[in-house]
Amino acid sequence: MRRLPPVLLKDGCSHDLISLIRTILAACKEISFRVGQGALSGVLGSTLDENIQGETQKKLDVLSNQLLKDILLESGYVKAIASEEEPGTVAGNPDAEYIVAFDPLDGSSNIDINSLVGTIFSIMRAPKDSDPADPNIFLQKGDQQVAAGYVLYGPSTMLALTTGQGTRIFTLDKTQGTFLLTQDFAKVPEQTKEFAINTSNQRHWQPAMQNYISDLLAGETGPRGRNFNMRWIAAMVGDVHRVLSRGGLFTYPQDTKNPEKPYKLRLLYEANPMAMLIEQAGGLASTGYERIMDIEPEQIHQRVAVILGSKEEVEACLSYHK
Ligand code: AFP
């Protein structure tokens, strides 16, 4: 078993970037412990509050957000942070080089049923001489990300991380408290027989997605000529980890269920970091009409349609969207 190299990743990463990633992982180790404690640590269940997204906040949402926010702002390594659980951005060290956008606990509706949850993070450079209190410093295309990753709190706690030189997978050794490198370069198989979508929204999808999924469900008797399998974890971090591990297509497409909210997933701290991890592992990540990491963000909690995973299957899905 290879140990984590002392500077985490060579790849020409600066000392401050390595220290910033280590700071994020320090918070994630604590979150892993709390998630693992479950009912024993009294953090299950919901608060009486809603977040900026209008979603009921779970106790672990609030705890995870506070842990990441405190450790990052105290570290001095970030100029500002943006979080799914924060209405606006929070200013940090005006002299710091990096900004971090994160979803502190993705899939939090899974907490009370002991299912998969995770932390997703995206690291960007702060524009030169920028104001740490200016939320517009986060409005950068996904291609501007310096690093991206997630920590999956499952039977084992795993980290997927990219700094632009491929996607690596690490596993937390809970006896030592260190993430050990367990897969050097993750590779998404170009073909797959597995897709992930919340099928209960089928009547609300656009015709392109209805036709694509219908052809998958037709199996070997339909136009695809082969059978497909379906999975839905209801935590993007779990579905994306499966895609990174064995291929697949994950999608949360546009739907008309709530006219004010045609999309579900957030661009800055879900779609963009996952898109970087997937593309660095040879997969594709699209909205159906454009590459996710080409999108010019307009506001920090902006939502977007997501179709990502095995290259040939994403291309097949996109062919229905022409
Ligand atoms: P929560 O964090 O509110 O549980 O939402 C998780 C998520 O943003 C994403 O991780 C899942 O893929 C998706 O929502 C699940 O959405 P549905 O509950 O509509 O299936």
UniProtKB/TrEMBL annotation:
Reactions the enzyme catalyzes: beta-D-fructose 1,6-bisphosphate + H2O = beta-D-fructose 6-phosphate + phosphate
Positions that bind substrate: D106, G107, S108, S109, N198, K264
UniProt-listed Enzyme Commission number(s): 3.1.3.11
Keywords: Carbohydrate metabolism, Cytoplasm, Hydrolase, Magnesium, Metal-binding
Pfam families: FBPase (PF00316), FBPase_C (PF18913)
Domain Fructose-1-6-bisphosphatase class I N-terminal: 15-183
Gene3D superfamilies: 3.40.190.80, Fructose-1,6-Bisphosphatase, subunit A, domain 1
Domain (Fructose-1-6-bisphosphatase class 1 C-terminal): residue spans on this chain: 188-321
CDD domains from the UniProt entry: FBPase
Intracellular or extracellular location(s): Cytoplasm
Ligand binding (Mg(2+) 1): E84, D103, L105
Cofactor note: Binds 2 magnesium ions per subunit.
Listed InterPro entries: FBPase_C_dom, FBPase_class-1, FBPase_N, FBPtase
PANTHER family for the chain: FRUCTOSE-1,6-BISPHOSPHATASE-RELATED, SEDOHEPTULOSE-1,7-BISPHOSPHATASE, CHLOROPLASTIC
NCBIfam families: PRK09293.1-3, PRK09293.1-4
Subunit structure: Homotetramer.
HAMAP family named in the record: FBPase_class1
Family: Belongs to the FBPase class 1 family.
Protein name according to UniProt: Fructose-1,6-bisphosphatase class 1
Source organism of the structure: Pseudoalteromonas qingdaonensis
Gene assigned in the entry: fbp
